[in-house]
Write a structure and sequence with these properties.
The complex is a heterodimer. In chain A, strands 1, 2, 5, 6, 7, 8, 9, 10, 11, 14 and 15 form an eleven-stranded mixed β-sheet that branches. Chain A has a two-stranded antiparallel ribbon with strand order 3-4. In chain A, strands 12-13 form a two-stranded antiparallel sheet. By secondary structure, chain A is α/β, with parallel strands linked by helices. In chain B, strands 2-1-5-6 form a four-stranded mixed β-sheet, with helices on both faces. In chain B, strands 3-4 form a two-stranded antiparallel sheet. The chains are: A alpha/beta, B alpha/beta. The interface between A and B is small, with 9 and 6 residues.
Chain lengths: 401, 124
């Protein structure tokens, strides 16, 4: 088994594009929330989301023609290109079957589907634009990454919803650790879309002005978007080329509640944490910070806090939610969480939970790192991702000793 | 990709199960270039089922496994005229054929050139 390093980061987010801008925004506790411009939100009770305003894929991409791809695929490809640039590797080294990609998503190219639906409603089936029909399939997300970078190895899109980026990072870890691939770009991508906003609104899960995870008066999520990519290679290869090594992937855990589609299960989530710790070869007491799933719904944050107490005891490590800044970026969410964890390890800080006003006594005394980033030496970070269907995925990241 | 899958086995494939009906020409050329002039028997469950999109190579794998266990090659339905451009492949036209299959290659080729090929064998 090879040790696995993260040497490149490519966030394309509502609070910053590129590792440096994203880290600065996390430290500043910046909000990426704005009035929805992706679609006409008239008639919705709540009309705010975490959009990547001014996303200009043509400025980031080197090979793909943005006109031929959907927004989610462009987020994936742009973030992957940034991660490879950040890694400092010669891109020519990646053009072989030992290099691939694994990307997660929730909604895929929903924006394209909505556009096509509008065309049909307005003028019937003959009005469908064939180029946009071709842009629909979700597998184009990883295909876009491989085409942008010339990767001819693995090309996998995972649709395990809101934990999909942790699934992707875990699979990338397995591929590199076992020698199946030498370089993998792993992460996730999603776009703000009408059906996502409508669906979560009908679930009663969308809030109005700001997402306030772990706050006593938290009232839901805000949908978000972006692309989150991490460049993964073996520790030996990173050292041999003198790369900057942000962190090591220590391991991960996956399980499924196999029960309810939307109600999370604290026992199952606690078991997923234990699986992740065992796989990473660590104890709960080794974890210095938990990058939370932390959606800001009453149910998620309560269940997540209960699971944390079940595993970590009365005094768990600090647990903050970057969804307070980004909104819920769906398939990209645990990818942004992993990037935040890695930056925290490399630069010595914990991102805050912004919009925090009142502690919730029901959460049993957790430390959500309220409102202000905190300097801290982080050796081991746990990154939580939970999805519809009770599909849980947790990654464990560590400082390279 | 076909060559990559073959390397793992060192040859000996009894039947190639094409991923679907109306396979692209590039794929047929791939079969010919890997197996040479003596192209193996190629048939398509896609011709029987019509296209099943994401489940296609799963049905192909089930057909391959049933062929190994039950001793038959599935047929390519709706076959009328050989295509000389395909270099003399045997598509098992229209009638299933009894055969002992020890090793079967199951092709799956996707949009974006995302290729995945499984090799299945009789348990010795």
């Amino acid at each position: 088994m090879r040790r696995v390093a993260i040497t490149g980061l490519g966030p394309v987010s509502s609070i910053g594009v590129g590792a440096r801008a994203f880290a600065a925004a996390l430290r500043a506790g910046r909000s990426g929330i704005s009035e929805i411009s992706a679609f006409d939100a008239t008639g919705f009770l709540h009309r705010r989301a975490g959009e990547v305003t001014g996303f200009a894929p043509g400025d980031l991409l080197e090979r793909l023609d943005p006109a031929r791809w959907g927004r989610t695929s462009l987020f994936a490809a742009a973030s992957a290109r940034l991660a490879v640039r950040d890694s400092g590797i010669d891109p020519d080294r990646l053009t072989g079957t030992a290099s691939g990609s694994v990307f997660g998503t929730t909604g895929g190219e929903s924006r394209v589907v909505e556009l096509l639906t509008e065309q049909v409603v307005a003028a019937g089936f003959p009005a469908l634009n064939p180029a946009e029909v071709a842009a629909v399939p979700a597998e184009r997300i990883s295909a876009a990454v491989n085409a942008e970078l010339g990767l001819t190895g693995e090309c996998l899109t995972l649709s395990t919803a809101c934990s999909a980026s942790n699934y992707a990072l875990g699979h990338a870890y397995d591929l590199v650790a076992c020698g199946e691939q030498d370089h993998v770009v792993a992460g996730g991508a999603d776009s703000v879309a009408r059906w996502v906003h409508a669906g979560f609104s009908r679930l009663g899960a969308v809030t109005g002005l700001a997402c306030a995870p772990f706050d006593r008066d938290r009232s839901g999520i805000l949908t978000g978007e972006g692309g989150a990519a991490l460049f993964v290679e073996s520790l030996d290869s990173a050292r041999a080329r003198g790369a900057r090594i942000y962190a090591e992937v220590l391991g991960y855990g996956l399980n499924c509640d196999a029960e309810h589609m939307v109600a999370p299960n604290a026992e199952s989530i606690a078991e997923c944490m234990r699986l992740a710790h065992r796989n990473a070869g660590i104890s709960a007491s080794d974890v210095d910070y938990i990058c939370a799933h932390g959606t800001g719904t009453p149910a998620n944050d309560l269940v997540e806090a209960r699971a944390v107490h079940a595993v970590f005891g009365a005094e768990p490590p600090p647990i903050s939610s970057i969804k307070s800044m980004l909104g819920h970026t769906m398939g990209a969410a645990s990818g942004f969480g992993a990037i935040a964890a890695v930056l925290g390890i490399a630069e010595g800080f914990i991102p805050p939970t912004i919009n925090f006003q009142e502690p919730d006594p029901a959460l049993g005394g957790i430390d959500p790192v309220p409102n202000v980033a905190r300097a801290a030496r982080l050796d081991v970070v746990q990154n939580n991702g939970f999805a519809f269907g009770g599909n849980n995925a947790i990654a464990v990241l560590g400082r390279v000793a | 990709m076909i060559a990559t899958a073959e390397r793992g086995r060192g040859g000996g494939v009894s039947q190639v199960d094409c991923s679907r009906q109306g396979e692209v020409l590039a794929h047929e050329l791939g079969v010919i270039s890997v197996f040479g002039g003596n192209a193996r028997l190629v048939s398509s469950v896609g011709s029987v089922l019509d296209r099943t999109a994401r489940a296609a190579s799963g049905f192909g794998a089930i057909a391959a496994v049933l062929g190994i266990a039950g001793g038959f090659m599935l047929r390519r339905n709706n076959f009328q005229e050989p295509d000389p451009a395909l270099g003399g492949i045997d598509p098992v036209p229209n009638v299933a054929r009894a055969a002992r299959l020890d090793v079967v290659q199951n092709n799956g080729l996707a949009f974006g050139g995302n290729n995945a090929i499984a090799v299945l064998g009789r348990v010795a």
